[in-house]
Structures are given as structure tokens and as C-alpha cells.
Write a structure and sequence with these properties.
Radius of gyration of chain B: 26 Å
Number of strands of chain C: 10
Largest sheet of chain C: 4 strands, mixed
Bound molecules: ligand MGD, iron/sulfur cluster, molybdenum atom
Mean pLDDT of chain B: 97
Largest sheet of chain B: 6 strands, mixed
Mean pLDDT of chain C: 96
Chains: A mainly alpha (282), B alpha/beta (778), C alpha+beta (199)
Strand content of chain B: 15-25%
Strand content of chain C: 15-25%
Oligomer: heterotrimer
Order of helices and strands of chain C: EHEEHEEHEEHHEHEEH
Shape of chain C: globular
Radius of gyration of chain C: 17 Å
Low-confidence stretches of chain B: none
Structural class of chain B: alpha/beta
Helix content of chain B: 25-40%
Number of helices of chain B: 29
Structural class of chain C: alpha+beta
Helix content of chain C: 10-25%
Chain lengths: 282, 778, 199
């Protein structure tokens, strides 16, 4: 299927922004890192807003956006419903300490925002889980959406930790590596599954026209990130630069993955029992 | 208002009329709003033929009517010929300009220097012909009649005195339907597409004889016979072989109603007439009567005739002559063509020939539809002759579910009056062994010769060409020469819907009214009916109906030939002459009118209007006209067998001009919702050839013949023989709205490829469906 | 049983003439580049000359009984009528294209001019007047039928009854449950027939 650039941008931004937020909160709570959540929230909100704008841009009739709140069964409506709450929550996280002081309530607020972020990511992920496209007709779609968010969220949290505290904790590194490995594993499964799809839409990503995207993903999303993380884990000198490098590669990788994700989501063939396609030539 | 116009509550109306976008003239309902705007066209369920169905091009009528590219006013050339500079003039000026020119040319060169013509039948055949005749010297009829319809129709008349293989194909009642070089479900929808489906639902068998598996019925056929183009003649001979030798012929019909028992000489296969045996009137054809053991007049009743007679007769002068029946002659000919031998020439399997033939011949009632796949060959007379024989001896002629006469074809024959006495002497043709004499098409000149006369002045000059609804730069073979010829004219007058490539070369271009804007009679190809094809809306701009033009212009030249002061008078003449039994006014009011069937429908009472009074296997008419009275196994003139040297360099056989269901010849590439369905001209090649020459779908390829070269996109198909390609015709127009190209300079015009060297001697038909060629990537 | 208006298309009778394609466009003013209905060709596929298959396949909305397009549409622009017809209210549609992704049958297109999504509406404006959809009305092969398949007396049900053995649906196992019924070609689609009888 056609690659929707606007959706590509928006889903990557959302995963990056919300992944960062979620892992920053987790890191603060459990991994011995102290990150300024308000600043993180600014970044997340910025990315979410930018992504939202991009996806509104994708609409044929953006001015009718508010019609989208009508069908509670639709994951798009659900996503649209979560969005304002999530936005407000992030805003509250930002303004806490400036306009008002939540005090001990702040942590509570952070957790609420994490929950909303998760909800947002889940509804967005579910948008793509569609039976009409055999490639997308699997729980892996949601799992990968969440894991890629976790992967890019955790590594960017490491970057944030370097930036704000000049160091990362071992647990954050371990979690990041774990997220990366899980995400890669899920993506690997997904790619394997593509080869066995029915309805005449099986895809081998090594073949044209998928190979370029696939290799881009492999180089950036897998190898570069893996190498960076290995060196970071080995506590190599330039860990900070490397992490940043890995985070950027991770973002590029997710872009590439999502392009691949769109491209391989071929609609079922009407007559898969034939080797050839329907055609329209006279 | 009459019952053919139904007023609508909002001030609009529904007009019952007929679509004229193809021959088959489906009954339609035109919805017109109160501002006289045509808003919808749909089939009229009251038409017993199309029953409400309509095809893609017919449904496009409003788009065609209001297409901004349509011609609106008469235009007179002001720049150089072909330069595209025009001056708008009035109709009065146009008619006067044309008449003055024609009179001046006639004064200098005689009326023979004026050629009249048209495209395929669009309701004006007789008037174009009358135009040609009115000068009193010769009718050139510079039209594609030689390619289309004339072979089928004339050969039908020759053998039966009627024409049963067009709208007389009784699809609806047949138990076996044969599409033999024909695809009428796409090309003559009204009487075929729905009927074929219905009959197949009943269990009717289907046979498709065609080189191309993309024939929409090929895959559904009980037998599909993949013939080499133009080899149908052998196929037909093998059928005849099987039918005779497996005793599958209808004994009663063959014996009593066909001229199978006609006695002919063994030596030169000429009829033995009574005046050869005794002093008697001429032209008394004979049969052998078993009861009296003597020869009898073939017209006698209650004979016990012998179709297998062989013997000796004594002539007046006492000499003996060996005689046999016409049926013997056929058997002898057919015996040479076993299915195996025919299959070799047809590039198919013997079993396919055997199976298809048996299914046909054993069916209770079986019908054969033939068309361009048979006609557009130099051996069309032979194939048509054989198919007519097959229809006859299997008893399917004038049988319900077989091939029927349709009244219009008899009635129309006298409409244009008689040809001038000098017709035969002045018409142009080619003599010689490879010649195109037109022995069976004397009312026209060989188009190639007429075009040559424009260029060369030989045998005498043609100075003017006046043509309605035709596009010779698209229809005629060897376009380059045609273009040159048209450029040499003093006067080219074209009447069209659009500024066609031929119009671009004209001096005078006249805007034709669309069928929704004009009154016509719908009679040709209308089976048992005649229709009042009335206009739905008033003509827009200054568009005229072609008939109004012919009549008005004709009266300027020869009032006697064109006595009708109004179109209505002309319509009344036409209806009276064709014994329709209805006046124009009545017809317009009731829209549809049923015609009585032709006499041969009850042939057991009336016989057939032929010299022998029978369905003629042995065609006396052919004989008298100088054509072969019996069919022959004639190889077409441009095939790997007849032109092996040419085939060495040009190994592929092209079939040109297979129809699109959505276009009509070169028309309607500019209508967006049609063009988007077939946006580019595509030559179809076999998957095997594509692989061999490494050609991908969509690649631009050159197609080349001895005559010329064009280019098109290629697409491959599993559905044809490796040595065959299919090239579409009619590509010139662009579609600006879709940004799809025009093809100026004939760059995709298939007739740049077709040659002017090989013709049917009888019908002057060029070899448009067997063109030796090669293709290669651009 | 509740009403289920649908189409029945006999692939044995479809000759690929594209009259329905054009009828649909003209009747519903569908712009260039957008198709609510279009006739595709399968084949010829196989070995020339006698091991070949070919048939035409008209494609339009399947008016699913469980239409995913309705489920996913965030605006309820896409909805199902009481007659089982799936429609799009172009005044509500925001052009998010979600329904396009969710429809397995390629039935929907974003109109590049109006920026809203369109598809076959079963000519409801004609059905309301007790007339047939234009594609059905004009079908040159007499291949198309339309009516309430749950009413055993309807013309469509009777055609189905006569041809029970040839009926099939495109991917009935999909959750959508397409309502449009096709009849198998009697010849020329052996591979298709085989795979249907197998499943
Ligand atoms: N839609 C549409 N309808 C039309 C026209 C149009 O342009 N478009 N044109 C009208 C006119 S004027 C005419 S004459 C008719 C023609 O109408 P048809 O003759 O019915 O149609 P064609 O597609 O020209 O040819 C019929 C078949 O002949 C096959 N064929 C080609 N060569 C051979 C051969 O050597 N042997 C055999 N057995 N088959 C062969 C082709 O593959 C094709 O399937 O259509 C008329 N109707
Ligand atoms: N190579 C090859 N050549 C062929 C054929 C083939 O199969 N292969 N087929 C041949 C056959 S069978 C035929 S019949 C001819 C067809 O030849 P033509 O009938 O000349 O066909 P067109 O090229 O469509 O040109 C007809 C012109 O008439 C205009 N027109 C349409 N209706 C009307 C009308 O009512 N009034 C007026 N004044 N104009 C109108 C159209 O706009 C168009 O420009 O082509 C022949 N040429
Ligand atoms: S088949 Fe011919 S007459 Fe009938 S609608 Fe089509 S173009 Fe018109
Ligand atoms: S075919 Fe597609 S658009 Fe039509 S109802 Fe089913 S899911 Fe919806
Ligand atoms: S594009 Fe329109 S109809 Fe489709 S899901 Fe979005 S709002 Fe609904
Ligand atoms: S039912 Fe109407 S809208 Fe649907 S395909 Fe047919 S003509 Fe088009
Ligand atoms: S109109 Fe009928 S026969 Fe023609 S393509 Fe459509 S469904 Fe097939
Ligand atoms: Mo023709």
C-alpha cells in the first residue's frame, strides 16, 4: 500500500515523544536517574503536537476534524478522545512548579500521564491492526508499535540522562537493551510472518521493491543501534555521543520500519489461487 | 404529444429514440429537462432487441453531445491545406461554395472527377451512393464498404437473395452458437449480448473460432478453435468434409431447397442448362429426377431429385457431356480437406475442428455469426461462400435458432436507384492475377485506385472528395498514400462530429448533428423492426444532420435525383420504397414498427430469390459476375504460405483493428470516462514472444511492415499464438482532460502498416487481418 | 429476516464490456480516476491454446453484512442502512482514509476533488424510485441482478435458487461477510472452481 508520509511522521513523533516520557518517568521512579519531567514533557508535547498536526494534515477535510469523535468503536475516535486528555496531562506536568505546585501529587500526575500515553499508543497501534490487510492482521502490529515506542523511548531517555545528569544508570542501560532486543525480536517475527501470508500477498522483504527500505532499516535500526548499545554497555569512552548516535539511528530505523510496514500491507488478492493478478489492459 | 415522447411533471420529457453510436441502434430513452438539456440516456426495455441494455459508448451520449471539442459551425479553410486555419461561414455559404466548386470541376473533368464517400454504415449509405450516382457517370463510393459488410451482404445475396449472417443471427433460439471471426457481443450489442447469455443459460452450446483467446466468449466456449488468421477457409472446408462424409447434412433441405442437385459439367464445373440439350429458353437449370430418370427444370415441383447424380448427357449437337451435381463438386473439394490437413494450415488441432463441427451440425438449431475476422481478408469470398453453404446444408437457413433473413436488407437495395450506365466502364479497379477487380462489388471503385487517381490523374483525375461520417486517414490501408492523395485534391469536403485528421486536410468542414440532435430512420441492422430515430434535443450551434446536408447539397447539383424538399419527404420516400407500411409521421409517433418477414422465411412455399430459386451452394450470381461459382481453397495473399520471402523478414502475423467495446473505430478517445479505461494504444503480443524479445508490459515497441512503421506500447498475453500480434486501430485523438496524448503524424495509426498490394478480387478487400510484420523494442 | 439488498453477478454471463463501469460513472457523476465499479480481467492465463483460463470480474462494494469500514469510520460517515446497504455520508466524512485501509475489497476511493471517500451506493436514489441500479439496468450480458436476497420471492433470490451450485463469495471467511454474490463461470475458471470446492 501507499506510504502515507504524514502518518509516518506523526506515528514516529508520537512513539518517540511518548516513549521518552514514559521511560523518563520509569527511570526516575525505578532506575536511579533524576530527569526533569517538566522539560521532558515539553519535548513530548511538542512531538505529540507536531505529530498531531501532521496527521491532521493527512485528513482530506481537516476542518471537519471534530466529526472524528463520533464512533466509539473506531480506534481513531478512541485515539482522538485520548488526545486532549493526554495533551492536558502533559501540559499539567510542564506547568507544575511554574503556574502551580502539585507537590506530592506531581508523581501521581506523571503516572496518570504515563497511563494516558499508553492508552494513546495502544489506540493508535490498534488503528493498524486490520484484517483487510493480511500483513496487519496480527497482534504483532500492536506489540511492535508499543515495542518500537519503548525502544526509541528508552534510548532517548538515556540520551536525556546524559544531557541532564551526564551519566546513565546500569538499569536504564539494561532496560534499553532489553527493549531493543524485544523490539528486534518482534520485528523479526513480523518479517518472517510476511513470507507466509495467504491471499497472495506474501512478501519477501529482501526482494524488490522492499529491499532498499529493508536494508535501511537493517543498517540503522538494527546494526547501528546494536553496535552503539554494545559499546555503551562496554562503558566505552564516547558513550554519550554513541547513545545519541544510537538514538538517531533508532529513529531512522523506525522511520524505515514504518515505511516497510506500510509498503508490505498489501490488500488481499481477489483470486490468490492464480499466479497472475487481475488486470485492466485492453 | 405522441406516445414516443413522454412529458415529465417538471416540464422535461422522455424521448424514445435509438442510439446511433453503432450499427445495432439500441432503443433508448432520453431524459431531457425543461431547458432542452439531455440529462440521461438509458436503454428502452420496450425494444425487443436490447431490452433496456446499453453499452459504454451509447451511455456516453450526453458527454458526446456536449463535448466542447465537437464541431459547431461550417468552417472554410483559409490557410494552406492542413495548416489548421479556418473561417467560420454559414451553411448557405458552405453549400453554395461546395456546389460551385463541384459544378466547375464537373464542367472541366466530368462528374466522374467527384468522389463521394462515408465511413461505416451510419444511416446514410443510400444517400452517399445517390450522391455518387447523381452525376450520371460513376459512383466511386469511396467508403470502407470493400472492407466491411459488402462481402458478407453481397455473398449472402448471391447465394440466397437475402442476407442471414448479420442481424439475422438468431442467438435467442439457437442450440448452438458459433462466433466465427466475430465478436458481436462487443460490436453489435442490441441483438447479441443478452441473447447469447440467455441461450447459454438454456444450455446452448458455444463455439468460438478466433485467433485470440481474449475474445470475451473464448474461455466459455465448448470448443475454442485457435485459427491462424485467414485460414478459416480450410476450417470451413474441413467442416464441409465432416458434414458430408459423416452424413450430418439435412437431407430434405439440401435436396429440395438448396441447389445441391444442380447439374454441372464434370470438366469445367459449369451449369448444364436446358438449351444445351434441346431448343429451349436459356437459363433453365437442371436437376436429375430419379422418378422419371430424366433431367428436370430445377424450378419444377414434386421432384425426386438426386443430389448424388453422376452421368452423361447428350447435347443438342449430339456430343456427350459428363455431368455431376453441384453437391458432388463440393464433396470432391471437401474431400481434399481432411480435418488433419486443414488443422495443419489453421495451426490448430484436428480434434478441435471435428468437435466444433459435430456440435454445430448435430444441434437442433444452430447459428453462425461471421464478421470482420472473416471479411477483412483477401479470401473472404471463399470463406463466406463456404460458411453460407454450411448454414444451408445443415438446414439452419431460415430456421428458428439458425440464420434468418431480415426484411430491411432486401428492401433497401433500390433506394439509391440504379447506377449510371457508364458505371462499369468508369469505375476504377485493378486487373491481373493479383488484381482487385471487384467482380462482386461493381457499385464502387477500388479505394486504392480512386486515391491514386487523386495523386496521379490516372486513369482520369479525381478532383473532389465529399465525405460524411468517415475518416479515411483512419480506415483506409496505407495511410501515407491516402494522405498524399487527399493533399492533391482541389476540393475535400468533410462532415464530422469532430475535427478528425481527415477534416484537418479539408477545404470545407461541416458540423454534423449527433444522433440525439437529429431525426433519422433506424432501419439498417434493426432485425424485424424499423424505428423513428427522432432527436431528443434541438440541434446545438449550427449542426446539421448528414441527411439534411446530402439532400440540400444534392438539390443544388441535381434536383431530379433529390426531389425531396424536406427531410420528412425523404423519410417518407425511404419508408415507402422499403415497403415499411408506415409514414414518417406515424413512425415518429410510435417509435417502433414491425416489418413483415421476407418471403424466403417460408422458403418451402416461396423458394429463395436466386436464379435457381434455391439456396445456392453453387452460385449462379457469382458465375455471372465473373467470380467463382463454387468455393475454392484459396490461401490469403499475405501469409507465411503465400509470401514466404516476406515472412522471412516479417515473421509475425498481425490482426489489425480488433474492436474495443468502449470505442467506435477512431471515435471517442476524447471522452474521459471512456479513455481512462483504455488510455494507450497497446499491441498485444504473446507471452512467449515477449520473453524472447525481452519486452515488458508497457514498453514502447516499433511495429514494422513492408509498408510502414508505427510505435505503440506492448502488452503480453497468454491468449495468442507466438507468431501473432493484435494491433488496435483508430488512434489519433487525445484527451486533454486526462492529459492523455493525441497521436499526430499517424505515429500510432495501424493503417500506416497495412499494405495496398493484396486484395480480394471479388470484393477488393485488403488484407487487414493478416499483415506480415515484425516488432522490436524502441 | 431483515432485508439485505445486494447484487448478484453471474461471471458466466459477464463479457467485460465495461457498460456497467461507465453506467455507474454517468449515473452517479463519478469523476475521472475514481471508480465505484470497474470490470477487471483474469487471464488469459495458462498455455495457449487449450490450457487457458479467462474470466471477467466486476468489482464494486460488497455491501458487507459486517462491514469493517463502518466499524472503523470515526465520523460515522460510513453507515449501514436498514436494507443492508453500506453508504457514505460525504457531508460527514473527513477523508481520513481509514475505511479504505479497512476494506478488503478495494471498493473505496478518496475523491481527489472533494477529499472525501466514495464507493458504490447501490444507486439508492434509483432503488427508492423502485428502479434498478444503473449497472444492473444496463448490463449487456444480463449478468447483474439486484434485490433483497432475504426475500425468497425477489428476482435476485430466484436467480440464485436456479444457480445455487455456482454461487460463491469473495473471501467469505473474512470478518466482513460480503453480501454480494457471484456465480462461477461455467467454463474458463477451473482453478477458481477447484479452489472453491476444496475449501
Ligand atoms: N464497440 C465497437 N463496436 C463496433 C465497432 C467499433 O469500432 N467498436 N465497429 C463496427 C464495425 S464497422 C464493424 S465492421 C464491426 C466488427 O465487428 P466484429 O467483427 O464482431 O469485431 P472485431 O473485433 O473487428 O473482430 C471479431 C473477431 O475476429 C477475430 N479475428 C481476426 N482475424 C481473424 C481470422 O482470420 N479468423 C477468425 N476466425 N477470426 C479472426 C478477432 O480476434 C476478433 O475477436 O463492429 C462494429 N461495432
Ligand atoms: N487496419 C484496419 N483498418 C480498418 C478496420 C480494421 O479492422 N483494421 N476496420 C474497417 C472497417 S470494418 C470500417 S467500417 C472502417 C471504419 O471507418 P470509419 O467509419 O471512417 O470510422 P472512424 O475512423 O471512426 O471515422 C468516422 C468518423 O465519423 C464521425 N462520425 C461519427 N458519427 C457521425 C455522424 O453521425 N455523422 C457524421 N457526419 N460524422 C460522424 C466520427 O467522429 C469519425 O471521425 O474502418 C476500416 N478500417
Ligand atoms: S450497442 Fe450500439 S446502439 Fe447499442 S448502446 Fe451501444 S453503441 Fe448504442
Ligand atoms: S466492501 Fe468494503 S466498503 Fe463495501 S461494505 Fe465491505 S468493507 Fe465496506
Ligand atoms: S474517510 Fe470518511 S468515510 Fe472513511 S473512515 Fe474516514 S471519515 Fe469515515
Ligand atoms: S449499484 Fe449503482 S453505484 Fe453501485 S456499482 Fe452499480 S451503478 Fe455503481
Ligand atoms: S455490463 Fe455486465 S457484461 Fe458488461 S462488463 Fe458489466 S457486468 Fe460484465
Ligand atoms: Mo465495419
Amino acid at each position: 500500500m501507499q506510504v502515507h508520509i504524514a502518518l509516518l511522521i506523526s506515528t514516529v513523533c508520537q512513539r518517540l515523544g511518548l516513549g521518552l516520557f514514559i521511560f523518563s518517568v520509569l527511570a526516575n521512579q525505578f532506575m536511579g536517574v533524576i530527569l526533569p519531567i517538566d522539560i521532558i514533557a515539553v519535548i513530548s508535547l511538542g512531538l505529540l503536537g507536531f505529530g498531531g498536526l501532521a496527521s491532521a494534515f493527512h485528513l482530506g477535510k481537516p476542518t471537519r476534524f471534530f466529526n472524528a469523535f463520533s464512533n466509539f468503536k473506531s480506534h481513531l475516535t478512541q485515539e482522538a478522545l485520548v488526545t486532549p486528555f493526554l495533551g492536558i496531562a502533559l501540559l499539567v506536568c510542564i506547568l507544575d512548579g511554574f503556574l502551580f505546585d502539585l507537590g506530592n501529587g506531581a508523581v501521581m500526575m506523571h503516572w496518570v500521564t504515563v497511563a494516558l500515553s499508553l492508552l494513546f499508543l495502544i489506540t493508535t497501534g490498534l488503528v493498524y491492526q486490520l484484517s483487510a490487510r493480511p500483513a496487519w492482521d496480527t497482534g504483532l502490529v500492536l506489540i511492535i508499535f508499543m515495542l518500537t515506542a519503548a525502544q526509541v523511548g528508552s534510548i532517548s531517555t538515556m540520551v536525556a540522562a546524559y544531557v541532564f545528569t551526564s551519566s546513565v544508570s546500569v538499569s536504564l542501560t539494561v532496560v534499553t537493551i532489553l527493549m531493543f532486543v524485544l523490539s528486534m525480536f518482534a520485528q523479526y517475527l513480523y518479517i518472517q510472518r510476511l513470507k507466509t501470508l495467504e491471499y497472495g500477498v506474501a512478501v519477501n522483504v529482501i526482494s524488490k521493491p522492499y529491499n532498499v527500505t529493508f536494508i535501511t532499516w537493517l543498517i540503522f535500526g538494527v546494526l547501528t543501534v546494536a553496535i552503539s548499545l554494545i559499546f555503551v554497555a562496554m562503558q566505552w569512552q564516547g558513550a554519550m555521543v554513541l547513545t545519541a548516535f544510537g538514538a538517531i539511528a533508532s529513529v531512522i530505523g523506525i522511520f524505515a520500519w514504518t515505511v516497510l510496514f506500510f509498503k508490505t500491507a498489501i490488500k488481499v488478492k481477489m483470486f490468490p489461487m492464480y499466479d497472475v493478478d487481475l488486470n485492466l489492459y485492453f | 404529444m405522441s406516445s414516443s415522447i413522454i412529458p415529465l411533471p417538471d416540464g422535461g420529457k422522455i424521448v424514445k429514440t435509438n442510439c446511433f453510436e453503432c450499427h445495432s441502434k439500441c432503443g433508448v430513452l432520453c431524459t431531457v429537462d425543461k431547458d432542452d438539456k439531455l440529462i440521461k440516456v438509458q436503454g428502452n426495455p420496450e425494444d425487443p432487441r436490447n431490452e433496456g441494455r446499453m453499452c459504454a459508448k451509447g451511455l456516453s451520449a450526453p458527454e458526446i453531445l456536449y463535448d466542447p471539442d465537437r464541431l459547431r459551425y461550417p468552417l472554410l479553410r483559409v490557410g494552406e491545406r492542413g495548416e489548421g486555419k479556418w473561417k467560420r461561414i454559414s451553411w448557405d455559404e458552405a453549400i453554395k461554395w461546395l456546389a460551385d466548386k463541384v459544378k466547375a470541376i464537373t464542367a472541366e473533368h466530368g462528374a466522374k472527377a467527384i468522389a463521394y464517400g462515408q465511413g461505416t454504415g451510419r444511416g446514410t449509405n443510400q444517400w452517399t451512393q445517390l450522391g455518387g450516382f447523381m452525376g450520371g457517370e460513376v459512383g466511386h463510393s469511396l467508403s470502407p464498404g470493400n472492407i466491411c459488410l459488402v462481402p458478407m451482404m453481397v455473398q449472402g445475396f448471391m447465394q440466397f437473395g437475402m442476407f442471414p449472417t448479420f442481424d439475422g443471427v438468431d442467438f435467442d433460439n439457437a442450440d448452438c452458437i458459433v462466433f466465427w471471426g466475430s465478436n458481436t457481443v462487443w460490436t453489435e450489442g442490441s441483438y447479441s449480448s443478452g441473447q447469447v447469455g440467455r441461450s447459454r443459460d438454456r444450455g446452448a452450446k458455444l463455439i468460438v473460432i478466433d485467433p485470440f483467446f481474449e475474445h470475451p466468449l473464448a474461455s466459455k466456449a465448448d470448443v475454442f478453435v485457435p485459427v491462424r488468421p485467414s485460414s478459416d477457409v480450410y476450417m470451413a472446408l474441413a467442416w464441409l468434409n465432416i458434414i458430408i462424409n459423416e452424413d450430418l447434412y439435412d437431407h430434405e433441405f439440401t435436396t429440395k431447397y438448396s441447389n445441391a442437385p444442380l447439374l454441372i459439367t464434370v470438366e469445367d464445373e459449369l451449369p448444364v442448362t436446358l438449351d444445351m440439350l434441346e431448343d429451349a429458353e436459356p437459363n433453365v437449370f437442371l436437376v436429375w429426377d430419379k422418378a422419371t430418370q430424366s433431367v428436370k427444370n430445377i424450378h419444377d415441383k414434386d421432384l425426386d431429385q438426386d443430389i448424388w447424380y453422376r452421368g452423361e448427357l447428350t447435347l443438342k449437337d449430339g456430343k456427350k457431356v459428363e455431368v455431376k451435381t453441384a453437391f458432388w463438386a463440393l464433396k470432391e473439394l471437401a474431400d481434399e480437406w481432411s480435418p488433419a490437413k486443414a488443422a495443419e494450415m489453421c495451426w490448430c488441432e484436428p480434434q478441435q475442428i471435428i468437435d466444433s463441427c459435430r456440435i454445430y451440425a448435430n444441434a437442433e438449431a444452430a447459428t453462425i455469426s461471421v464478421f470482420q475476422g472473416i471479411e477483412e481478408h483477401t479470401n473472404c469470398k471463399e470463406t463466406l461462400h463456404l460458411i453460407n453453404i454450411i448454414i444451408s446444408i445443415t438446414g439452419n437457413l431460415e430456421k428458428k435458432g439458425g440464420n434468418l433473413s431480415m426484411p430491411f436488407w432486401q428492401q433497401m437495395r433500390g433506394l439509391a436507384g440504379k447506377p449510371p450506365e457508364t458505371q462499369a466502364a468508369l469505375r476504377m479497379y485493378e486487373d491481373g492475377p493479383e488484381g482487385a477487380k471487384g467482380t462482386l462489388y461493381g457499385t464502387a471503385s477500388l479505394p486504392k485506385a480512386a486515391f491514386a487517381a487523386m495523386r496521379t490523374g490516372k486513369p482520369y483525375p479525381i478532383k473532389a472528395y465529399i465525405c460524411v461520417q468517415g475518416n479515411p486517414l483512419s480506415w483506409a490501408e496505407n495511410t501515407k498514400k491516402v494522405r498524399e492523395s487527399l493533399m492533391s485534391l482541389d476540393v475535400l469536403c468533410m462532415m464530422d462530429y469532430y475535427m478528425s485528421p481527415t477534416c484537418e486536410l479539408a477545404d470545407l468542414v461541416l458540423p454534423a448533428a449527433h444522433w440525439t440532435e437529429r431525426d433519422y430512420i433506424g432501419d439498417e441492422v434493426c432485425s424485424e423492426w424499423v424505428f423513428g430515430q427522432q432527436k431528443a434535443v434541438e440541434p446545438l450551434y449550427e449542426r446539421w444532420s448528414d441527411i439534411t446536408f446530402w439532400r440540400t447539397y444534392g438539390r443544388e447539383i441535381n434536383k431530379e435525383a433529390w426531389p425531396w424538399e424536406t427531410d420528412e419527404e425523404l423519410f417518407d420516400y425511404q419508408l415507402k420504397e422499403t415497403n415499411a407500411g408506415v409514414t414518417w409521421k406515424e413512425l415518429k409517433g410510435k417509435w417502433i414498427h414491425h416489418l413483415p418477414p421476407f418471403s424466403s422465411r417460408e422458403y418451402w412455399k416461396n423458394g429463395f430469390p436466386t436464379p435457381t430459386g434455391r439456396a445456392e451452394l453453387y452460385s449462379i450470381g457469382n458465375l455471372r459476375a465473373g467470380a467463382f461459382p463454387l468455393p475454392r481453397a484459396e490461401e490469403a495473399k499475405e501469409t507465411p504460405y503465400s509470401k514466404p520471402e516476406m515472412a522471412a523478414e516479417y515473421p509475425l502475423i498481425a490482426v489489425t483493428g480488433r474492436r474495443y467495446p468502449i470505442y467506435y473505430h477512431s471515435s471517442f478517445r476524447g471522452i474521459p470516462h471512456l479513455r481512462e479505461l483504455a488510455p494507450h494504444p497497446m499491441v498485444v503480443i504473446s507471452t512467449a514472444l515477449a520473453k524472447k524479445q525481452n519486452i515488458q508490459d508497457g514498453d514502447e515497441v516499433y511495429i514494422e511492415t513492408v509498408t510502414g512503421k508505427i510505435s505503440m506500447q506492448a502488452r503480453s498475453s497468454d491468449g495468442l499464438h507466438e507468431r501473432m500480434i493484435m494491433i488496435p486501430h483508430g488512434w489519433w485523438q487525445g484527451c486533454p482532460e486526462l492529459n492523455l496524448p493525441a497521436y499526430p503524424d499517424d505515429s500510432a495509426n495501424v493503417n500506416v502498416l497495412t499494405g495496398d498490394k493484396a486484395y480480394s478480387n471479388e470484393f477488393m478487400t485488403p488484407n487487414m487481418r493478416s499483415v506480415l510484420c515484425k516488432i522490436y523494442k524502441k | 429476516m431483515s432485508k439485505q439488498m445486494t447484487l448478484l453477478i453471474d461471471l458466466d454471463r459477464c463479457n467485460g464490456c465495461q457498460a456497467c463501469t461507465v453506467a455507474c460513472k454517468v449515473e452517479n457523476n463519478v469523476i475521472s480516476g475514481v471508480f465505484w465499479n470497474r470490470v477487471h480481467r483474469m487471464g488469459p492465463v495458462g498455455k495457449f491454446p487449450d490450457k487457458l483460463e479467462m474470466f471477467y470480474f466486476p468489482m464494486q462494494c460488497m455491501h458487507c453484512e459486517n462491514p469493517t469500514c463502518v466499524v472503523v469510520c470515526p465520523t460515522k460517515a460510513t453507515y449501514e442502512t436498514e436494507d443492508g446497504i453500506v453508504l457514505v455520508d460525504s457531508d460527514l466524512c473527513i477523508g481520513c482514509e481509514y475505511c479504505i485501509w479497512a476494506c478488503p475489497y478495494d471498493a473505496r476511493t478518496l475523491n481527489p476533488e472533494t477529499k472525501t471517500v466514495e464507493k458504490c451506493m447501490m444507486c439508492t436514489h434509483l432503488l427508492e424510485k423502485n428502479e434498478l441500479p444503473m449497472c444492473v439496468y444496463t448490463c449487456t450480458g444480463g449478468a447483474r441482478h439486484c434485490g433483497d436476497i432475504n426475500d425468497p420471492n425477489s428476482e435476485i433470490s430466484q436467480v440464485l435458487a436456479k444457480n445455487e451450485g455456482r454461487q460463491f463469495k469473495i473471501h467469505p471467511e473474512l470478518t466482513n461477510k460480503p453480501s454480494v454474490i457471484y456465480l462461477l463461470p461455467r467454463k474458463g475458471a477451473e482453478t477458481l472452481c477447484k479452489s472453491i470446492s476444496r475449501s
